[in-house]
Design a protein that fits this description.
- By secondary structure, this protein is an alpha/beta fold.
- The protein has 3 helices and 6 strands.
- A hairpin with a 2-residue loop joins strand 3 and strand 4.
Length: about 130
């Protein structure tokens, strides 16, 4: 008498369902990732060589000591927005040049960029020529 079962269970693993899940996750992340960046700040980074065609309207300088200057006038951190609004009021495309000294914490530069973003100013990050 044969007591063995007629149905044998296969020991193979089917990868087709796993690849379907991975593919769906890949498509999901590819479609949703561009939706994250529209609120990012638009920075116009100048080239290190050549002259800029933008007319300087206002500049904000940040020193290593944490001092803020708007057009070479020292301003407290809390009055930067008011000073920039006074300088850039009534202009079609207000442009702000950000000069951050080497070694300035990134939070200080982001603070000024956030003010520019709220007021819809263009930001140009000044760099040192090569």
């Amino acid at each position: 008498m044969n007591l063995r079962g007629r149905n044998k269970v296969s020991a193979e693993f089917s990868m087709s369902s796993m690849t379907d899940i991975v593919f769906l996750l890949l498509v999901f992340f590819l479609l949703t990732s561009p939706a994250i960046t529209p609120d990012a700040l638009d920075l116009i980074l100048p080239k290190a060589k050549g002259k800029s065609t933008n007319v300087q309207k206002a500049s904000v300088s940040i020193t290593k000591d944490g001092a803020y200057y708007v057009n070479k006038e020292r301003v407290s951190e809390y009055n930067i927005e008011k000073e920039l609004q006074a300088v850039l009021s009534g202009q079609e495309e207000p442009t702000l040049i950000l000069r951050a000294e080497e070694g300035v914490p990134i939070e200080d530069a982001v603070f000024v960029m956030d003010i520019a973003n709220k007021n819809k100013y263009k930001v140009v990050l000044a760099v040192r020529p090569n």
